[in-house]
Amino acid sequence: MLSYTDLKKGTLFLKDGEVFEVVDASFSRMQQRKAVLQAKIRKLATGKVFDISFQASDSFEEAEVEKRALLFLYQHRGEYVFIDPKNRSTRSSMPEDVLGDNKKWLKPNTELTVLFLDETPINIQLPIKMDFNVKEAPPGVQGDRSQGGTKSVIIETGATVQAPLFINEGDVIRVNTETGEYVERVKK
């Protein structure tokens, strides 16, 4: 059993028969009251995020989740298909709504970690930093500093990333998949 002090970022636990992941957690204490854990939790089955408070009397069962390294193959009609790199005949699919915002970072032949609960894929863990080709980038006007020297570029997956003015179409950039921020330009 987990107590409310064990709920840290990334912890998976069961609540009301559903699997939740802690997105963010912090303790708050008001004057002479007991400490309360303020947390943002994500329901893995739907991807929805909730704000919730936990008391010292709350306890939770840890979710028995299996992690497997799989390869993302393709997306077709809202289904994302993954295969086991060691046994290519083993395929798993996941609906679009379960992936949430992670789907905008998926590109074919990317190896990632898939979380399984009772042989059912429930979520994915992407590499923290990934490289993407820039498909569309407006020209960077040198005198335009109203946005702090950044512009919106569209990467190969269709996601929009704020990048410096010197990034052009065809460049390869490294993006932090947790925050969605530009990290650096990758040398070709």
Which SSEs are present, and which pair or pack?
Blueprint: E1 2-3, E2 12-15, E3 18-28, E4 36-43, E5 49-54, E6 59-62, E7 66-76, E8 79-83, E9 91-95, H1 96-99, E10 110-117, E11 120-125, E12 129-136, E13 150-155, E14 160-164, E15 172-176, E16 181-186
Antiparallel strand pairs: 1-6, 2-3, 2-6, 3-4, 4-5, 7-8, 7-10, 8-9, 10-11, 12-13, 12-15, 13-14, 15-16
Spatially, the strands of the biggest sheet line up as 1-6-2-3-4-5
Bulk shape: flat
**Helix coverage percent:** under 10%
How confident is the prediction overall: mean pLDDT?
87
What does the largest sheet look like?
6 strands, antiparallel
The helix count comes to 1
Runs in which pLDDT lies below 50 for 5 or more consecutive residues are none
Task: Note the run of SSEs as H and E.
Answer: EEEEEEEEEHEEEEEEE
Structural class: mainly beta
Instruction: Kindly report how far apart the N and C termini lie.
Output: 49 Å
Beta-strand percent range: over 45%
Number of strands: 16
Question: How much is the radius of gyration in Å?
Answer: 20 Å
Account of the 3D structure:
The chain has 188 residues and is mostly beta strands. The protein is built from 1 helix and 16 strands. It has one helix at 96-99; strands at 2-3, 12-15, 18-28, 36-43, 49-54, 59-62, 66-76, 79-83, 91-95, 110-117, 120-125, 129-136, 150-155, 160-164, 172-176, 181-186. The strands form 3 sheets. The chain has a 6-stranded antiparallel sheet with strand order 1-6-2-3-4-5, with no helix packed on it. A hairpin with a 2-residue loop joins strand 7 and strand 8 (79-83). The model has no long low-confidence stretch (mean pLDDT 87).
